[in-house]
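Ticket 4471: requesting a sanity check on a complex prediction with adenosine-5'-triphosphate. Repro inputs:
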Amino acid sequence: DTNAESSAAATTTAAATESGSEEPGLKIAIVSSPSGVDDGSFNQDNYNGVLKFIEENPNATVTPIREETGDSAAAVQAVADVVADYDVIVCCGFQFAGIGNLAQENPDTKFILIDSWPTIDGTEVTADQVIDNVYAAYYAEQESGFYAGMAAALSTTTGKVAVVNGIAYPSNVNYQYGFECGVKYVNGTEGMNVEVVELPSYAGTDVTGANVGGNYVGNFSDEATGKVLGNALIAEGVDILFVAAGGSGNGVFTAAKEADGVKVIGCDVDQYDDGANGDSNIVLTSGLKVMHDTVYNVLNEVKDGSFKGANVTLTAADDATGFVSEEGRCQLTAEAIEKINAAQALLKEGKIVPAANFNGVTPETFTW
Amino acid sequence: MKKMTKFWNAVKIPLLAILCSLVVGGVIIAVTGSNPFKAYYALLQGSGLSPKSSYASYKSMLTDFMSYVNYFTPMIFAALAVAVALRAGLFNIGVSGQMLAAGFTASIIVGYSSLNAVLAKPLVVIIGLIVGGLVGALIGFLKYRFNINEVVSSIMLNYTFQYVISFFINTFFVDPVSRQSKEISASSRLTLMDTMVGNLKMDIPLGIILALLTVVAVWFLLEKTKLGYELKAVGYSRSAAKYAGIKVGRSMVLSMMISGALAGLAGVTYYLGYVGSIQPKVLISTGFDAIAVSLLGNNNPFGIVFSTMLITLISKGSTYMKSAAGVDAEIASVITGIILLFSACNAYIKWKMERGRREKTNKTKEDK
Amino acid sequence: MDIVIIDGLSFALPLFIMAIGGIYCEKSGVTMLAVEGLQGFGAFIGAFVAVAIAGNFSGDSPVPFYIAMIMAAVGGSIFALIHALLCLKFKANQVISGVVVNILAMALTAYLTKLLNRVVFGATSDKFVLTVSSRITIPGISKIPVLGAVFTNLYPFELVIVAVAFIAWFVMYKTRFGMHLRACGDNPHAVDAAGRQVGQIRLAAIMICGALSGLGGICFAYSISANFSSSIYVGYGYLAIAALIFGNWRILPTLGACLLFGFARSGGYRLVQVLQMPSSYQDLVMILPYVLTLLLLVFFSKQNGAPRALGVIYDKGAR
Amino acid sequence: MSEYIVEMKHITKRFPGIVANDDVTIQIKKGEIFALLGENGAGKSTLMSMLFGMYEPDEGEIYIRGEKVKLESPNHATKLNIGMVHQHFKLVSNYTIAENIVMGMEPVKKVLGCIPVVDMKKANQDIRELSEKYGLAVNPTDVISDINVSTQQRVEILKMLYREAEILIFDEPTAVLTPQEIDFLLDIIKSLRDDGKTIILITHKLEEIKRIADRCAILNRGRLMDVMDVATTSTKVMANKMVGREVNFETEKEPAKPGKTILDIQHLNVYNKQDFQVVKDVSLEVHSGEIVAIAGVAGNGQVEIADAIAGLIPARSGKILLNGRDITDLSIRERTTEGISYIPEDRQNYGLVMDFTLSENLALRNYYKEPFCHKGVLDQKIFEDNSEKLIEKYDIRSGQGSKTVVRSMSGGNQQKAIIAREVEQDSSLMIFVQPTRGLDIGAIENIHKQIIAERDKGKAILLISLELDEIMNCADTIAVIYNGSIQKIAKASELTTNEVGEFMMGVKNKEKEA
Ligand SMILES: Nc1ncnc2c1ncn2[C@@H]1O[C@H](COP(=O)(O)OP(=O)(O)OP(=O)(O)O)[C@@H](O)[C@H]1O
Ligand SMILES: Nc1ncnc2c1ncn2[C@@H]1O[C@H](COP(=O)(O)OP(=O)(O)OP(=O)(O)O)[C@@H](O)[C@H]1O
Ligand SMILES: [Mg+2]
Ligand SMILES: [Mg+2]
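Returned structure tokens:
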């Protein structure tokens, strides 16, 4: 609901309502993991994109469908159960990567797959293996991480910051690397000496088996361990934590709330509401993947017939990554916001390329 | 004729309970603003028991039904596992853990090998039987030898398996896209996935044949054999069983072993049949639901087939119900809960009915 | 070391109070597998009320926290009425009833959390975000080495739990009600013959169990993540049951079992940090409490026995 | 107020397949001892259970002290000052005697001036005084599970007295007591009557009725046959009315013709679960064609000897030979097949699977053998046939024949079922522990005849009984046990009842030592 408005949308409104009243609207389904489309988080952000589209196209309908187990096979089965009844199916998250074959068998239905690329026969597609009716988007998490790193470095009072992740899957490593680069960038440009704290016992091992350091809970749904890890970092003197650990992150939030003067940076969506702690709020800002725009834009493409299958990784250049800077939703100083905005411009131009799991750059080799 | 009345007596009370709960569930659905008849019909449609208005390519009512069969096969085994243990007075609350242990072992030994189907499939079943049986036997043995309550040891083992297997999956067998264990080979899978039959692409669950055979076998074992008699005697009275020369300890271990082996079959038909991979650190609810399913089926193997089909029908059809009738999947679980609630009152309904009948006969006697 | 004790206690005590609830119920002769459901539903009510009234208090006020605890207890005991109705009135199988209550609680809390968020708070969320509770360090004693950690960084609920646990012990062993309750679990016919209503005593026991489970549930919600969602309570109910069986249905030994769980758990976390194991080993260490329990049971379980009338449906005419 | 304190009018109670009470009307005067007599399953317990509020009658009315009442629960009955000692005691096994007695009416004290707690000190004191007042010695702090049955029964009586019950129902109170204890109990009942209490006594023992009862009602198959004055009726008449035929009190038997040794126990030592020695160096022989009875007061190790022979508890040392074969280390099943039949003391926990049907229970010893079981598969038809045959032969009465769940059968008929099953085993050794406990005189006569008939067929019979009459009536050889060791083994003809009683009490032996 924060980044939802964009000026581009406003111009299309009139056209959309006009045509919408004549022809039957799109039938849209949005399929999500167990937490559902009203989870106030990842799924919700996708859903907001659909809602915005429907607002402008009242003839379109949406049915949110929740898959109960979170198992990847069950997720695909849930899509298969309803595939015949919809024009577009929005699939929220990596659980739905397995829809590749299903999509090929049902060329009349369009699929929007967020935060994952599809697999065919269990193997992930390469960038050029486009399925005609699947639009699949990854996001450059390292960019969101980069803003978070900058925000942390610019706001710390102890000079110690940290990033907490779930498991060292590429998306998490991207967040971690981006964060470290952001801190490094601030240290370099501002002449500061902010330390990124890593506990050796929580170091992550990425999918290639390499040790990537960082702080990994080892799980995406273990709030208790998240809290233990958060506490351990706070005990090391960390006062800003970037949390990209799914449900485990809730535990880190709690640790921060119980401690004094510790702030967290949310990820994926604006997590300001989760930071409420009595009269205060512990959320400094959030690193964003602007998924609702992706969904909204692609739905419009479906509507006007310009839809094309694609496997993309969306970046700052696509306005797909960002951070929260609205008054009342973040606690960054104006100065910090300005500095991050400046860096964001450089990212868009490609003048800064933060390290990612597999882009050949590491936080150590990162320069600008 | 006599057989018919006997059958009718056995089923009329569960049927009444189900009817009551469908009425209550219908009221709830109506209150949330949907049409209960449409919702219930959608459950049938979603499970392939009545036709949908449109089908995806290569799909029909038959493929939906096969998918439903694929879905409920593990539950039949799981409920049988509960029933066999209950016969001997033991409460196997560890079915989920045993399923996981069996499924994981079979996955890593066979699922990731290159064995051909003729060898792999029977081997998977055998491993399921053995692993589940061993775990069950261990629980029985702990009870018999050390007087450790089976509920406690099952729960402890549930957790232990959950964590240990999660460790192995995350460390050695993870698929970075789906974030669960790598999918097993098609040749080891107990369901022939996406098999072209005529113009249809269906999942053919081989497990159902095994399941139906097992139902008959378990029924025969419990009702017609010496072993069944012994288990029942031990279940009713350990002291009297001992007096009768039955080896109480052996019977307890044996019944837990059989129960565990059945749970193992549930595990392989779930993990190597229905889904094909394992979510780390998730204990599926099948094992717990199976307790209710088994009791709804009156702990009778044939009753279990019907109670399984009923309970799984609701969860299986819930996706389509949401899609076609707009009823939330959560409501489906609430209805399941209500059905179980009513059937838990079986004994009471029976008692009421018997009393009613007695009063009637008394009256007629008096009239004479 | 200190952190092991502090974290261990904050996990063990909510578990303990839930286990006491289970003891009440089972000592009265009613099998209680529904601890998890009661915990979840109680915590749900407590958290909902806490969020609903939070606006009326200043942000740091502890009052919503205490109201939440009370409402969680109320919510738990109301939900426990389902179990009571099934077991006592409809003479249902107590095992199935317990499992059903759990299934129902899971479905209802998941659904209602979102519904209430939407309808009452106009927010879309699957959880209630609570204010974290403050922590107390008792001056003086907290300075004692090792033992002092027991009095350091306490959640206020830990003190509440200790007090409630003491009262529960007192009621169970010193009062007439407690005496009748325990007798119901051994021979309900004797209680009936003694002029007490078995049904009423069991009803009370079940509701107490609901209240204590709900209380434990809201404490977990506060200590683990300071929010309530239907996913945070899975598994602890069964752990509480394991603890009470381990404790042989007696309050003090059950405390021991809960402390064992708590310390083994926090000790495990500490071990990972000290040994600098990679994060993936976390899962291996997490089995510590469970494996330890099994091992200890091997040595200490021989004499254990459930209440004699546990799970037997009371029929006054039974022979 | 009417002359009667209790009136039950036109009471009818039906259970599935059986009318347990059929239009029964009894009226009981205040201050009398009223006896209820009837065969097993005649409906005595059922009738009294309704007076105590455990069942509600299907038809009929109950008046207490002239007022019509609807008794809904034992609780309600207690409030009307009705107390009952049940055939199966209702005690909380892990509570102390005092706790059991005061339960529901506990003395309460306040701590800190306001919190009510149970005052166990006062309770113990009260019970001590109460027990002294009525001469029912108990130690208030003993735990129920540690005390023997006769003490448990005293606790049940004290429970009624503590509650100041005025109408006291005793359901077969003497079935589990020794002769001395019975004497004692009857004296107490008399003194209670003299205190003005009204007593209803269910018993199968006519001499007890003769000794203390004022009037006696006779039930037969649920129907009230007669109510008579005890003083003017002979036991013979009572017995005939009850059974409906002539009853023979003295068992007739030929002298024994002992053959070869069947059972040979050598220096047997047995310890119980608490590791307490309960059988001390017992040696005993039983020959074919001979009835050896072990006489003794309850709890002196006789049951453990039987359990050890049957293999239910292990022998710590010593040897048990059956037909010359050492069976000491064999399993229960192996011993049974070697030729042991065993009628255990505790029929509900050991002798029967209470939730099995009659036909399943009657096959408990044989279900695994041909023809019941063929290659692991059971033959239902054989189960039925077997059960029909035994029901007929042993006159086992129940609501639904073979299909009756045993739990619903009357105590006496449960016992008959066990005896039928065990006798049909045709084993060379038959162990009878309290075989006629709780049985009516007609049934007792039958069983004694059966025991002797089996002896005459050449079986070796070990009879363990607390009833001296039974032992004197049936035994050829008597072994008297006291405190785990055999005090005396002698031909029955060489011992008098009195002598046996003295050995049982350990008196005779002590004299010898002195
Ligand atoms: N009444 C009971 N209640 C609960 N558990 C019981 C009961 N009776 C037996 N058990 C359990 O069953 C186990 C085996 O019982 P049993 O006494 O038959 O052992 P056993 O004699 O060693 O067996 P076996 O006859 O095979 O040698 C015991 O250790 C105990 O855990
Ligand atoms: N709860 C019950 N359900 C079914 N039948 C019952 C029940 N209680 C008693 N009966 C039946 O009612 C009849 C009378 O039983 P009751 O116990 O009153 O006999 P009784 O005279 O006390 O016999 P006994 O001398 O053997 O104790 C028996 O046939 C018994 O099987
Ligand atoms: Mg009787
Ligand atoms: Mg043994």
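Notes from triage: Residues 36 and 66 of chain A are 5 Å apart (CA to CA). Leaving this open until the requester confirms.
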